[in-house]
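Q: Got a minute? One more chain.
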Amino acid sequence: RFLNPGRVSMPDFDIDFCQDRRDEVIRHVQEQYGAMQVAQIITFGKLQARAVLRDVGRVLSMPYGQVDRLCKLVPNNPTAPVTLQQAIDREPRLKEARHKEPGVDQLINVALRLEGLYRHASTHAAGVVIGDRPLDEVVPLYRDPRSSMMVTQFNMKDVESVGLVKFDFLGLKTLTVMDRAIKLIKTSGVEIDLAGIPLSDERTYRLLTAGATVGVFQMESTGMREVLRKLKADRFEDLIAVVALYRPGPMNNIPNYIERKHGREEVNFLHPTLESILSETYGVMIYQEQVMQIAQSLSGFTLGEADLLRRAMGKKIKSEMSAQRQRFLDGAVANKVPADKAAIIFDQVDKFSGYGFNKSHAAAYALIAYQTAYLKANYPTQFMASLMTLEQDNTDKLGGFHQELDRLAIKLNPPDINLSTANFSVENAGSKNGGGEIRYSLAAIRNVGANAVNAIVRERDSNGPYDDLFDFATRLDSVNMNKRQLLNLAKAGAFDVLNPNRAQVAGASDLLLRHTALAANERGNSQESLFGNIDTDVHSSPLPVVEDWHVFERLRQEADALGFYLSAHPLDAYGGLLKRLSVISYTTIVGRVDHVTSERVRLAVVVQRRRERTSARGRYAFIEVSDQSGIFEVAVFTDLFARTRDLLEVGSILLIEASVQRQENSIRILAQTISKLEEQGGGRIKGFRVYLGLQTRLEALSAVIAREQAGAGRVAVVQPFRDDLEVEVELPGGYAATPAFRAALKSVPGVVEVLDI
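A: Always. Here it is, folded:
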């Protein structure tokens, strides 16, 4: 398509690079063609609804809190921005503020007049132009103070009109994931050249056929995974086709492609001349190149004419299409194709062409998809570690990857101040498919940051592992650590290796930071403290005596720091109750591919996040929830939301009866009833039987039991003495037989199992 001497329009180059090295490419282009012949492209930021309210509010000296509250009443939807007037029409609270709060009416009136104006100049995220002579001879230029590179004053559409070629140098995260995965694989003694891997790897196609494509480029969506299960791809051409077809419009041809591939539907080429063009895709028109080849073979179009036909079909200009149709029919008849058959073929081509995808683009995407699938199928630990490193700022995605690791039986080890780095790392890896485990990244803990982590790791690499909390505090520079960072490290369990009592570590944060500051001050002064050596002085201050968080609180704090539950899930404590209530998991729902209509299910979930919306009927919500199998979304409509709003707080453990609506490529879960899960188990649990191991810490068990001496439940302890003998002792008194008590018992080191009596 580019190497076409008959092409009239300028080509547009979109090129993806590893995101870590994109800047190298831009520097290379500047060096290759000259700094005066290379420039980025300008973009103009507009005053949209929220931005115009903030800017006008600032000029009017209105309180920040008031303006911020009003801005948050404007829906934030980047894909379909809402105008300020639309927000006012839809949100009663904005109307009320406009009429009742001083200054708000003026704010809104001015904002409505300014909305849509250009606010500032910026640079296009990827666009670069390269000229055959200095660009100041072609376009006016602009200097962005934040960049050393020139910027055109014309936007991306206008630079093309003056004859410049536009390149989009894009940073593609997937290429960086693959690069890092290859480097991790190399540390286990295996070197991979992705350009040389076979395109017929059985393990890769088994992964794709199973739809196990979490993390696989372009193939992660639920709908795509279902297509892959039905397609049963066994050749690279199938992947090119599915990348091109899985979009609105051509998606309707996916069933035909699958049925024809497996011989369940007859392949129709419309005319013998088209067989060589359409045989690869079983007679289904998929690519723009096929349209151009059909026009050439059937109607004698030149390459230039075929490109004009492709563009005309894409634009759907009626007059141009009429001319192209006549040219197509005349050429076909000249090649002895019956006129009626030629008309049918043109109509088929015309119907398809508006959705056509160029094969070169689809093939490039399919190759990256295959390469990521190959790495996941053959080196899953290294691939998932790389994927998680590149997504470590997105805790929602990390939670999903954690579920995928469970499915792959790859252990995710918790963050450890003496073992973790700024990336997700691989431990105990073997060679190909040799297993291994992933160690959680310290930089993926919320609000810790790469600078602090790099300082921690640098010091550890230079002077060895940290011996205890005070050793950590002494060796760390106070510039790199604040209370929030220290607290989140504690809540995530990063200090468990030094002190397993997370509540005590969190409570000692001020003491440890004072110690850090004193140690840094002493190093700076190159002299001892007035009261002697800093180490002995502060070590003499004991940590505050604090009881560790109970299991649910420990998990809540952990989820707050990591964004999801890592060491366990709050629902683990409700195992017996979930069975009695016939609760099913989210993955069970997804796996029921034979269900095509609505069904009623019962779910047990923990609320992760709540997003409220307004409709003509009132407020409703989408709640992001998790169970032991994954994270998903439940819709709560107006009437139910009004009755249960107080239950939908983050961390609430709920029982939801819901209807599941299955559409062609998606699942919607609509809540019908919502209640607290713990209220469903009242009076059902009689007590617990606690099975001890040989190394159980009895003092810890005794402390947990002592806290729960208020209830009618029974507790029996089972202690093994040898292989064929165990003794059961029922403890006197009554206990609170709750899921929280069960979870606390299971958390005691050495307890093997806790079962309901």
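A: The radius of gyration is 32 Å.
Q: Perfect, thanks.
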